[in-house]
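Appendix B. Raw example, untouched.
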Amino acid sequence: MEIDIWMIALALPALMAATWIASRWWYMRKVRAAQHRLLSLDGMHQSTLKLMAQARKQIEDQQRVVSEYRRRLTTAELAARRAASTVKQAPTADAEELAKAPGRPPVVWADTQPL
């Protein structure tokens, strides 16, 4: 078998072209797969950012509601304390009137017997 120089001159560029085409196909396939993974990860990242923004908004809303409830509770407790202090002062006058009134003894919670 005799190989001439002109056969090598024709075969070498053909083999180089075939190798270039095969490697380009192989690496472009890898690049497309990497791009697909990157787009997928980017979509997940954007979704995560949206969910985080929604969660922050919900947390802010809940903190606002809790602070409003705390404010209302504090207001109610202050009103109850004020009412309790006025109620404590008022029964002293009523107790004096009951003590002065003749006849029946004052009614207490445990009284179940008829008078």
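End of appendix B.
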